[in-house]
């Protein structure tokens, strides 16, 4: 189906009559047209998030109501619009979304109207889980990892050991949810899923940058950590190496569909000798000899 449906036009007209400009803009951003939300509607909604007289709960609830639709197109575009506002709107919106006990409850969503609906429903379920995790990360850390200050003086590079060990697993969980979107390049078949994938690609780059800087900070502090901190840090680092492999696969999909890789991170893995040094240090703190370490993990991939 292309263009706005009769249902879309009636809904927009109703909002015009009731004077709800926000509801009208949300309706127009989430039409049955198989393409991403139009820029003019997204820009208007971003503007709304920055207006102090606009009710953020009303805006968020209007978007959430659109995910109750039976149409995969409407639901997917409601998720995309929410994600776009999370990325580019006022932080007030993120704060409100993070404060809700539940955000998207789409684990069982299925549009049975057409074959494409079956296929796209899978990605809607995955995408909604990522947005839930993105909101949860903000709730737990009180910061959006994709927007934080980076570099030598950035948040993750200057964080203390205790906070770092609590924060890195939160980033890991968010990145896991993002990478679970898992499309093949031949599944990116329409303007709706392509728009969602582009937003996820942008988040993946920024999220990994924060993750990577936190791991660098952790490694710099590792040999001064207490034994239990070293143990946690070692597991975090092993998980990090695994996530680099998964992120590399995700970025290859982006490359195959022609997304500019200019901002993509260098995923060259650290030499295995680094992991060995970390394991040796922990073994020495635990009073184990190196041969004990080898015997304890004969099937180690590291």
From TrEMBL:
It is found in: Cell membrane; Cytoplasmic vesicle, Clathrin-coated vesicle; Golgi apparatus; Membrane, Clathrin-coated pit. It holds the Pfam family ANTH. Keywords: Acetylation, Cell membrane, Coated pit, Cytoplasmic vesicle, Endocytosis, Golgi apparatus, Isopeptide bond, Membrane, Nucleus, Phosphoprotein, Ubl conjugation. The keyword Nucleus applies. GO terms for cellular component: clathrin-coated pit; clathrin-coated vesicle; extrinsic component of presynaptic endocytic zone membrane; Golgi apparatus; nucleus; synaptic vesicle. Its main location: membrane. PROSITE patterns: ENTH. CDD domains: ANTH_N_AP180 (cd16985). InterPro entries: ANTH_dom, ANTH_dom_sf, AP180-like, ENTH, ENTH_VHS. The keyword 4Fe-4S does not apply. One of its GO terms (biological process) is clathrin-dependent endocytosis. Residues 14-145 form the ENTH domain. GO terms for molecular function: 1-phosphatidylinositol binding; clathrin heavy chain binding; phosphatidylinositol-4,5-bisphosphate binding; SNARE binding. Cytoplasmic adapter protein that plays a critical role in clathrin-mediated endocytosis which is important in processes such as internalization of cell receptors, synaptic transmission or removal of apoptotic cells. Recruits AP-2 and attaches clathrin triskelions to the cytoplasmic side of plasma membrane leading to clathrin-coated vesicles (CCVs) assembly. Furthermore, regulates clathrin-coated vesicle size and maturation by directly sensing and driving membrane curvature. Binds to clathrin; involves primarily the C-terminal sequences, but the full-length protein is required for full binding capacity. Binds phosphatidylinositol 4,5- bisphosphate. Interacts with PIMREG; this interaction may change the subcellular location into the nucleus. Interacts with AP2A1 (via its alpha-appendage domain). Interacts (via N-terminus) with VAMP2; VAMP3; VAMP7 and VAMP8 (Via N-terminus). Interacts with LC3/MAP1LC3A. Belongs to the PICALM/SNAP91 family. This is Phosphatidylinositol-binding clathrin assembly protein. It comes from Cyclopterus lumpus (Lumpsucker). The lineage of its organism: Eukaryota, Metazoa, Chordata, Craniata, Vertebrata.
């Amino acid at each position: 189906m292309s263009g706005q449906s009769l249902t879309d036009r009636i809904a927009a007209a109703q909002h015009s009559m009731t004077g709800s400009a926000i509801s009208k803009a949300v309706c127009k951003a989430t039409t049955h047209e198989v393409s991403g939300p139009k820029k003019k509607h997204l820009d208007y909604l971003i503007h709304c998030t920055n207006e102090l007289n606009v009710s953020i709960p009303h805006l968020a609830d209007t978007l959430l109501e659109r995910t109750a639709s039976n149409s995969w197109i409407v639901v997917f575009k409601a998720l995309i619009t929410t994600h776009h506002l999370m990325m580019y709107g006022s932080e007030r919106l993120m704060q409100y979304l993070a404060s809700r006990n539940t955000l998207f409850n789409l684990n069982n969503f299925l549009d049975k109207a057409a074959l494409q609906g079956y296929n796209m429903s899978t990605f809607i379920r995955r995408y909604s889980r990522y947005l839930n995790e993105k909101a949860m990360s903000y709730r737990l850390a009180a910061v959006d990892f994709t927007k934080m200050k980076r570099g030598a003086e950035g948040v993750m590079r200057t964080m203390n050991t205790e906070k770092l060990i609590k924060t890195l697993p939160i980033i890991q969980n968010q990145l896991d949810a993002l990478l679970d979107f898992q499309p093949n390049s031949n599944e990116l078949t329409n303007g709706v899923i392509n728009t969602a994938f582009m937003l996820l690609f942008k988040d993946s780059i920024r999220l990994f940058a924060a993750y990577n800087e936190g791991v660098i900070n952790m490694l710099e502090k590792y040999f001064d950590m207490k034994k239990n901190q070293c143990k946690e840090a070692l597991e975090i680092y092993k998980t990090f190496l695994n996530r680099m492999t998964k992120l590399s696969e995700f970025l290859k999909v982006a490359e195959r569909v022609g997304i500019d890789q200019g901002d993509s991170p260098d995923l060259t893995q650290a030499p295995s000798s680094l992991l060995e040094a970390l394991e040796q240090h922990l073994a020495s703190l635990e009073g184990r000899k190196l041969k004990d370490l080898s015997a304890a993990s004969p099937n180690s991939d590291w």
